[in-house]
């Protein structure tokens, strides 16, 4: 079985496990947490394509997330447009913005690219805060954001919304798997290794970087639409610089260049604060300590740590097999 088939099979298996997960929880509140995990996981999968595969850093992905949330909310609430129009606009606008800013920005590299995307994120955040008549300003969007509905079906219950968000996440991972194992994916890996070497091999570096940047923005936009129509309330504080940093940490903690590793990182960092609420006085200290411990003992992220564990178990198994063979041979000689 090839790597592509294995990744697709993994996506289906993980999707099946996520489908039964709500029934294993005793508290309906955790379904809400899992919905937010799936939404964050969707953003991080797109960001990992940009960071882990193309080697391009973005500190402004929260801006695409917020643009989609506000656009869809304004279209369906303030302008009273159909839900389909709101969803389409919510995804199209961030993609167009990513295209327009990506053309000049992606000519930069390293710290300069990080600063450019950081500046974009700050500009969008200020826009959300200052355009009170449109976005509601710091107090949050004032319109009544409707629940998401598709083909006449409204996702009213948290359980139905969970399955929607999880299906979108799994489909997003499957799309990313297709990209990674395509000619584009091989070009991205070459760009990550060395842009100059990739150019010498005939790779159109600018086009591939722009494609990945726009695609990652579309992932964030899809997550923004899901977020806005689930909570039915949005405010600029959810789309600030710190959230962009959290997304980067999710990618690194899960494992750059590993799609399911980044999903694991998103689930872990989204759920961790919920489990630490019992330690109210030292919550932030424990949060930091756990992150430091994870990076110390798993510098390649969850995906790298799992691969290392598999290698150790395989080596141990071969050693036991070799020892057993040696004992059998001694017994036969004796």
Please describe what this structure looks like:
The protein is built from 14 helices and two strands. By secondary structure, it is an all-alpha fold. The radius of gyration is 22 Å and the shape is globular. α2 runs antiparallel to α12 (259-275). The two termini are 44 Å apart. Helix content is 76%, strand content 1%.
Secondary structure topology:
Layout lengths: L2 H18 L8 H25 L7 H18 L4 H23 L4 H21 L1 H4 L13 E2 L2 E2 L3 H23 L2 H11 L1 H6 L4 H27 L9 H14 L4 H17 L7 H15 L3 H33 L1
Antiparallel strand pairs: 1-2
Mind telling me the C-alpha Rg?
Answer: 22 Å
Largest sheet features: 2 strands, antiparallel
Q: What percentage of residues falls in helices of 4 or more residues?
A: over 70%
> Largest beta sheet: what is the strand line-up?
1-2
Any low-confidence stretches, pLDDT <50, length ≥5? Answer: none
Separation of the first and last Cα atoms: 44 Å
The rough form would be described as: globular
Strand content: under 5%
Number of helices: 14
């Amino acid at each position: 079985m090839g790597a592509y088939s294995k990744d697709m099979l993994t996506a289906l298996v993980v999707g099946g496990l996520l489908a039964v997960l709500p029934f294993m929880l005793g508290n309906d509140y955790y379904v809400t947490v899992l919905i937010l995990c799936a939404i964050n996981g969707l953003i991080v999968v797109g960001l990992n394509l940009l960071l882990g595969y193309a080697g391009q850093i973005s500190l402004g992905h929260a801006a695409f997330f917020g643009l989609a949330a506000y656009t869809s909310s304004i279209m369906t609430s303030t302008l009273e447009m159909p839900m389909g129009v709101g969803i389409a606009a919510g995804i199209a606008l961030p993609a167009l913005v990513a295209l327009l800013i990506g053309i000049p920005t992606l000519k930069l590299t390293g710290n300069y690219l990080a600063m450019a995307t950081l500046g974009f994120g700050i500009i969008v955040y200020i826009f959300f805060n200052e355009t009170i008549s449109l976005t509601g300003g710091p107090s949050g969007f004032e319109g009544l954001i409707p629940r998401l509905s598709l083909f006449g079906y409204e996702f009213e219950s948290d359980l139905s919304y969970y399955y929607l968000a999880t299906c979108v996440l799994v489909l997003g991972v499957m799309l990313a798997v297709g990209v990674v194992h395509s000619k584009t994916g091989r070009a991205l890996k070459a760009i990550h290794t060395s842009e100059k070497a990739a150019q010498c091999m005939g790779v159109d570096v600018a086009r591939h970087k722009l494609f990945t940047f726009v695609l990652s923005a579309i992932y964030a936009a899809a997550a923004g639409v899901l977020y806005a129509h689930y909570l039915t309330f949005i405010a600029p504080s959810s789309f600030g610089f710190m959230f962009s940093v959290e997304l980067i940490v999710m990618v690194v903690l899960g494992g750059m260049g590993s799609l399911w590793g980044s999903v694991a990182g998103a689930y872990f960092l989204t759920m961790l604060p919920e489990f630490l609420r019992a330690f109210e006085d030292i919550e932030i200290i424990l949060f930091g300590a756990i992150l430091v411990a994870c990076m110390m003992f798993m510098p390649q992220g969850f995906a790298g740590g799992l691969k290392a564990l598999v290698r150790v178990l395989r080596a141990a198994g071969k050693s036991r097999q070799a020892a057993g063979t040696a004992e059998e041979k001694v017994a036969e000689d004796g």
